[in-house]
Design goal:
By secondary structure, the protein is of the alpha/beta class. Among the domains are: about 25-190, P-loop containing nucleotide triphosphate hydrolases (Rossmann fold, 3-Layer(aba) Sandwich), CATH 3.40.50.300; about 300-403. It is about 55% helix and about 10% strand. The protein contains 16 helices and 9 strands. A 5-stranded parallel β-sheet has the order 2-3-6-1-7, with helices on both faces. Strands 4-5 form a two-stranded antiparallel sheet. The chain has a two-stranded parallel ribbon with strand order 8-9. β4 (about 150) and β5 (about 155) form a beta hairpin. The chain is elongated, with a radius of gyration of 26 Å. The relative contact order is 0.12. It comes from Qipengyuania aurantiaca. This is AAA family ATPase.
Length: about 400
């Protein structure tokens, strides 16, 4: 939606990881150095940890794009509390091997033969395990056992473990993981971006989609965004996406600090809606849309959310946040498709005008075209307004559930 108003080629602040938007902050540069060093060693474990939304997946995606696929084979496992038996099967599946989950010995044999074949072909093998904090100690021990495979003196498998901060703590404190700890050859914890990196990060993503100084941003907003996001890339994306969406709705050419503060208050549930939903009913009827139902009123007001961590990143509330992000993405995608339809109708109107030069002086013909364009403008404004109200509705519901 907002990408059309500001002339972007695509949305620059999506919540899903996209390696093409990789930004090399200080902490990401260090992580990439550790990764490169570890991969050169060709053995053991590399561990990268960081908060939810810190950019672990984007970092690994960027690394994958840099690899020579003729010399490296990569398998990937995204875990969900896997046990030891399941870990072996998932590792095999990540390399395209068909194994019987109940036959651990057979699965290990297939993995070993696969690794030996890759080594003879001159290829290294890397297994990436994401969300490693969900693994049981038994599953981690199985991974360590897989790292024992050798062809002569050559190690056959190297592993990259990605996890949240609790995985770093798990590795350092559990006595059962001492042998695995000894095989970690490189480790890095992704810190938050520095305050001075927020503006370059935002501009980097905007320039990637063809930013042409629309909108312009006042200098004061960067400190506020850094404070509210705590330097976590995904939270910066979330704030900027809402800022640009609301900016497009209000047709703003300048984004100032007061505007950003108002958007953040809306995200946190601290600001009331601009007007009752009923006031938008006439416009909704014009566009054929039904008004959203009002959120239920509770006896006690929801407590203020002091920072995003409490309801966006906390493990016990992660499912609600993920659902909310999915809802927002789905709504934006639906309205983006509607915007494309509107753009197509505009092109047809233009073609009709160009194809009828003889009727150019026909006043009724011009009036009809003008009326069509007016209705299109009304529908577009209505859609943008309803989109804003829908997202506010879902976010306010999520905030109450979290509370």
């Amino acid at each position: 939606m907002y990408e059309d108003f500001y002339g972007f080629s695509e949305r620059p602040f999506q919540l899903t990881p996209d390696p093409s938007f990789y930004f090399e902050s200080v902490t990401h540069k260090k992580a990439l150095s550790y990764l490169s060093f570890g991969l050169q060693q060709g053995e053991g474990f590399i561990v990268i940890t960081g908060e939810v939304g810190a950019g672990k997946s984007t970092l690994v995606g960027h690394l994958r794009n840099r690899l020579d696929w003729n010399s490296v084979t990569v398998g990937e496992v995204v875990t969900s509390a896997l046990g030891s038996e399941e870990m072996i099967a998932m590792a095999a599946h990540s390399f395209g091997l068909e194994v019987d989950h109940a036959d651990k010995a057979g699965a290990l044999s297939k993995i070993e033969h696969f690794l030996q074949d890759e080594a003879r072909a001159g290829r290294k093998v890397l297994l990436v395990v994401d969300e490693a904090q969900n693994l049981t100690v038994g599953a981690l021990e199985e991974l360590r056992m897989l790292s024992n495979f050798h062809l002569g003196a050559q190690p056959l498998l190297q592993m990259l473990l990605l996890g949240q901060p609790e995985f770093k703590q798990l590795l350092s404190e559990w006595d059962q993981l001492e042998q695995l700890r000894q095989r970690v050859i490189a480790a890095h914890h992704l810190d938050a971006m520095q305050p001075e990196e927020i503006e370059p990060y935002v501009m980097h993503r905007l320039e990637h989609v063809g930013y042409k100084l629309r909108p312009r941003f006042e200098e004061a907003i960067w400190q506020r965004i850094q404070r509210e996001s705590r330097g976590i890339p995904r939270l910066v994306n979330r704030i900027m996406s809402r800022v640009l969406m609301k900016g497009a709705v209000e047709e703003r050419e300048v984004i100032d600090d007061a505007f950003v503060a108002a958007v953040i208050d809306e995200i946190n549930g601290k600001a009331p809606e601009e007007a009752p939903m009923s006031e938008y009913t006439p416009q909704s009827e014009k566009s054929g849309l039904q008004p959203m139902p009002s959120a239920p009123v509770e006896d006690d007001p929801a407590p203020e959310v002091e920072d995003y961590q409490e309801w966006d990143d906390a493990p016990e509330q992660g499912e609600g946040s993920a659902l909310l992000d999915a809802q927002i993405s789905a709504i934006e995608e639906a309205f983006a498709q509607r915007d494309k339809v509107i753009a197509s109708l505009r092109r047809e109107v233009a073609q009709l005008r160009d194809a009828s030069p003889a009727e150019a002086s026909d006043t009724s013909h011009d009036a009809r075209l003008a009326a069509i364009e007016t209705r299109l403008d009304e529908q577009e404004r209505s859609l943008r307004h309803v989109l804003t109200m829908m997202i506010d509705y879902f976010e306010s519901s999520a905030t109450r559930n979290a509370a």
